[in-house]
Amino acid sequence: MSEIKAFEGTYQGERAIYLRAGRYEAALLPEIGANLIAFRDVENGNRFLHEPTEEEFASFKAKPWIHGIPVLYPPNRFEDGKFPWNGTVYQFPVNETSTGNHLHGFVADTPWEVEDFGQTKTESYVVAALHVTEGHPVYTYLPHRFTIKLRYALGANGLSQHIFVQNEGDSELPCLFAFHTAINAPFVPGGEAKDYRVKLTIGERWELSERMLPTGAYQPLTADEIALRDEGVYPFFGEMDNHYTAVPQNGRNRMELTDTKAGVTLVYDVGTSYKQWMIWNNGATEGFFCPEPQINLVNAPHVDLPRDQIGLFSLAPGEIWEETARLYVK
């Protein structure tokens, strides 16, 4: 493998940590939620993640949810902004007026610290951390002491992600995480979305109310959704803002996106801690879509179903949760 290095630079004027390894390049924005904003194959010109244009950058900073890999904590929607937890109801701001819900949590637009970056013989890497204690903006809404660390590494086998969460307080911490990963389709220069097919390890589709909250019931999969699960389907076959259980296939929980003309497949292997998928395709608009691995069911603290079924995870004082994911090409 040729050049392997990590270095500090800028991305559209924002501080960025760049990773390079062989034909791959990636960039992380520490001050904007430790968003991994770019993952590219520079030899072939492929850009796998939906990056903001210069014109989009201001709106990206205001709502950094549909570019790169934003971290959602706690993820997705909560009814009336209320988050019941161990006998207390936390009140989150209602920031989605169309549904009257809170949406997407508090860490995607929060500055993170760069703890380390560098390179070894086989990979370049960066470690970003968010330490929440009294006085931190996130503590205002989630009054817990905890640390989240993200480590991204780039090597011959693509981009690896490691998330680490530790409860450093004296009460049970909600451990509800997701990534609003935005994948380009097409990702090949000059490619056409009609040539793309996506496969995802979905199981059941959750029924959602008019407020986009699960009712607790399932809906039958359509023919297109069955193709999404099995042989693959055009990513923009219809509008998708859909919620599914995650059911690993052959031991893995993953998305595969293939450019059938170029013969290139992008694999997003997310690990089996993620019990749910959200899939959003921007109103079936060609260009990008978001396969979002999510620990928990949307609005989980309000849903009367077994905790393990809906991914309502918690960490006792001192406990750690971690998971890995990888983006690679085959």
TrEMBL record:
Family matches, as InterPro entries: Aldose_1/G6P_1-epimerase, Gal_mutarotase_sf_dom, GH-type_carb-bd
Q: Name one Pfam family in it.
A: Aldose_epim
Name of protein? Aldose 1-epimerase
- Give the organism, scientific name: Paenibacillus xanthanilyticus
